[in-house]
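[#protein-structures] MJ: dropping TIGR02281 family clan AA aspartic protease here for a structure pass
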Amino acid sequence: MRRSPKFLWIVLAVLATGLLLLILNDDAGSTFGFENDQFASLLTSGLLVTVLAAGIVASRPSFGEVTRNIAIWLFIVLAMLTGYSYRYELQDVASRVTAGLVPGSPLSVTDSEGNVTVTVEKTGSGHFEARALIDNKPVQVMVDTGASMTVLTVEDARAIGLDVEALNFAVPVSTANGVTVAARARAETIAIGAIGRGPLPILVAQPGALGQSLLGMNFMGTLSGYDVRGDRMVLRD
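AK: finished. structure tokens for TIGR02281 family clan AA aspartic protease:
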């Protein structure tokens, strides 16, 4: 009787590992030579039969205990299969929750075919702004389709780990406040929601020349498209 709990935990670990493999191999479409749907069915069916048979043989429980164990394992299997089947919807829910809790967070949506769209909201200033991740650091950026390059303020450049003091501010750039100079740099990754690109060249504006970092066309131009719908801008990967 004491071995049963350990055995059940082992089976649960195998089931969780199988689910992880399915998620990791989602783009490939197959796991160990089986289509992912077939692998999921074989995994859950095989483990369920193994657990039930081992439990009956080892402990010889009463009919009520057998029924209860079957119900528990059916619930676990169905919950994990449901989570895998609705993985895209769950990702969308998580993205919506994050967008609601963290101001400026873009809303990412992935459809059943793996196509990604990201929605950016217009702020009170009348511009589209979003919380980007540049080199895995959060940076509030304004989408500027008139800027050929992504431009960071000195403060944001320092926040993502650039050595600002070592930069050479010698590149002339035009801003709303006139002509100024900026320094060339590089971002390993720039991500807006689930859409990421990199490495990409960027500019760092000289101190005091820029009030907010700009997301330019060197990122926007890599998208398959984008359009404005009222107070929302939709980016398509």
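MJ: nice. The chain has a mean pLDDT of 76.
AK: one more thing. The chain has two domains: 3-85, 104-236.
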